[in-house]
């Protein structure tokens, strides 16, 4: 019997799914492997490929084994296939099959939708690595560079996780989908990534932190709800991915927090009280708080779009068929079928925003988006604590759900961040008050100077309070090749 | 006064509320409100499952307290309270709130063992963070003996054993340089159970056999020694009560380029075997230099004489020194240090060098004298160099 806790290294692909005794899938994955390595090698600049990076690698999926830290060259990172241990007697946690034993094989009648859910999730993983490919060159410290690469290799591993499911459970069309995951490219004209936010550039490090805070948090919510799938292999895959995803949340929250920290420190030091005294603040080499709010507005709203339409038949089917649950479905105390339940959904009729109760099953996307907003609010509260501690009169806030939207009922609606419906003209004329302007982008870009001396940080960002793996402040997280 | 307690806490300034710890905790000792994620003192049993899954390190916080912080107190925190000074009983100046070990007896033993460094020991800057005190006298780990080999020649009057212990599915994360305690069965003359005896682990962190949950010890049979005789007589399959791990300063730097000067006698070689194997398994010949001075009476009483000779010199520069070779003058490690004066002086002058001394207490004086001479021959005052190195976590002594 395969040892499902520890990772086996008896094939090229580390795994805890007994690959060595599953010749068909092993062969398929080995065929896919070179394409993946090529994709990686084409993506990451060569001097980083040859550098030693202090990364964590999972050697087993139990708590003791999943975070082993060591120096590795990224192309030698042990990407592999890791599933959380099977929970005995697990049931389908929601929908019309609620209470039946969880599926260990693909339920034939739901095959197409299940495959689509996996492909969409899989498509986001390599996309973000593509979006972030140039950031290594402007890293504000070796610490941040290491965090970027950790996020990148783990997104790579998450791609592996989805590709394994496609190869193992979806035969020839699964193999084709797996190949397509490497064929599509973020921002490409002919073969773009499937979701809008994943075709946007990540031009600077504040964008990267906002992306990992807001957009990866969408990823976390999607993984949370796929971890509640009645298709057990998907659930087990996503449960293990969530432990890694937490690191991405960490990079985002602390990255933005450290940016705010440095701005506040410098304002205090220079005796600047007015947070809107932007020229003076920028002269200090830090990013003013109003610009940080604009970046927040942009990334938060792009991420809301990722949840899809508020009312959705696809989402209803996913839930009803037991393929995708709600956030923490297993902790919710209701009938898990939602046949007669309702959920309040906001709507825009061209003039005003109203709220009406709709069938809860159709509003699954809306509900997940609300859970997301609640989750995202926590970090904003903690960012505000930093500002308050420095006695600066400024508060960051999440904009209204109707502001700057491209998907769903609010798509294109002229709504201010406070949620007021205004005229198209007013919205357009005030756009640069609310969203980063070209000039804001240029200013942030001007700060993106790489810092590669251990323990040193760029002007606009504070040092972290704790090192990775408890390492001291001047630890050399990346031993740069030819540095 | 009440005995100080160890409490597990989470730093609310570092925590990002991902709740991964809460999902991981097998006994639901972790909970959260709208503000903070907290650990229930009444429930937490120090199983440590939550430690590696935390992405931030905020989970790895410990305080020695006289009265544990309640859940309500923890929910209200915006930052973690500092460690309070705890006045010690018995007229001492203050309790040691560092955590080489939490068992009083073990902490005392380690403090004595490290005293030769001349001040408070510190871990190397790049050392991994050690786990301590996962298992205690009242809640020991149960290990199975997987091997017991004599390391010294049959004819030698010194019986040193290589003992392999397997921990099955219990977690026993030990770093090179840490010790574990072994509890001999039975009671002492006054009818009390035996206290654990500390043994330095001689295998690297990934196990005597890589990725097996086992470790090795290097144990010398002492005349009338209760625990050493118990350990040396263990048979394969025997079950052993183990406490620990202990020690948070005598550790290997993770920086593969750090240079190591290791000086030992007898079973003091145990941690250095672990250091060397760790290096061999990770960087091979590409690490910083490693130099070993190893004293014994004769080759047939020197533990690991055979395997040691197989380690290539470009990995480990070896100086094996013998004090009882018929027809040869007695030579001790300090004598050889003086012979290799130039090499030692160069090492001491390099800020990348870490010095480790391990063995019988009797070796301390001679080694210290030799190092004093060598340092001062280059115009450096030894005590200030030593103290500076110790403060930087680069000078370590463990003698018994």
From TrEMBL, chain A:
Q: Which SUPFAM superfamilies match?
A: Ferritin-like
Entry GO terms, CC: cytosol
Q: Which InterPro entries match?
A: Aromatic_CoA_ox/epox, Benzoyl_CoA_Oase_BoxB, Ferritin-like_SF, RNR-like
Q: Which GO terms describe its molecular function?
A: oxidoreductase activity
Give the matching Gene3D superfamilies.
Ribonucleotide Reductase, subunit A
GO terms for biological process, alphabetical: phenylacetate catabolic process
The name under which this protein is listed is: Benzoyl-CoA 2,3-epoxidase subunit BoxB
UniProtKB/TrEMBL annotation, chain B:
Keywords associated with the record? FAD, Flavoprotein, Iron, Iron-sulfur, Metal-binding, NADP, Oxidoreductase
Q: Has UniProt tagged this entry with the keyword Iron?
A: yes
Single Gene Ontology MF annotation: iron-sulfur cluster binding
InterPro entries cross-referenced by the UniProt entry: 4Fe4S_Fe-S-bd, 4Fe4S_Fe_S_CS, Benzoyl_CoA_Oase_BoxA, Cbr1-like_FAD-bd_dom, FAD-bd_FR_type, Flavoprot_Pyr_Nucl_cyt_Rdtase, FNR, FNR_nucleotide-bd
Q: Name one Pfam family in it.
A: FAD_binding_6
Domain of life, per lineage: Bacteria
Instruction: State the protein's name.
Output: Benzoyl-CoA 2,3-epoxidase subunit BoxA
Originating species: Zhengella mangrovi
